[in-house]
Specification:
The chain has helices spanning about 5-10, 15-30, 35-50, 80, 95-105, 115-130, 135-140, 140-150, 155-170. It is mostly helical. The chain has one domain (about 5-170): Lysozyme. The termini are close together. GO terms for molecular function: chitinase activity. One of its GO terms (biological process) is chitin catabolic process. InterPro entries: Cell_Wall_Dynamics_Protein, Glyco_hydro_19_cat, Lysozyme-like_dom_sf.
Length: about 170
Amino acid sequence: MTPDELLKIMPLAKPRIAAFFSPLCAAMEEFEINTPARQAAFLAQVGHESEQLLYVREIASGKAYEGRADLGNTEPGDGVKYKGRGLIQITGKANYIACMMALNIDCVHRPELLEEPVNACRSAGWFWKTHGLNELADAGDQVRITKRINGGINGLANRLALFQIAKEVLA
């Protein structure tokens, strides 16, 4: 993939392409997102979740995640502290702990580390691989990929539109 190809997939990423292109490519290599099908699916999801690389921190406050034991948010303030970060929006203390252990990034004590380009990309790649999304991309199952990332099908139409563009660009 080239920077021009990435911009064809995510035209809104233009102001951030210099910061994100190399870390994004490195993360795709590290986490075996290494076929056109996997790359198209990954870029579509990342494109949606980050608004085409514009956001690496969830816009909402995170208060909706307070007390969510399923996310590991058991202490007051955990929802806000561990709101979505990175290109796939790692959410919840349990996911931050798992990410920290896997990537050796102390994002539990310094959640903002997941906002840095390299860590934002690596955390997305890590989440992708550890949740079996390469296999779902190989099977072409964009709906199940969306459900594993989002918990539902929010933004599915946008994700599918980005996927179609990415497929054409990367073919």
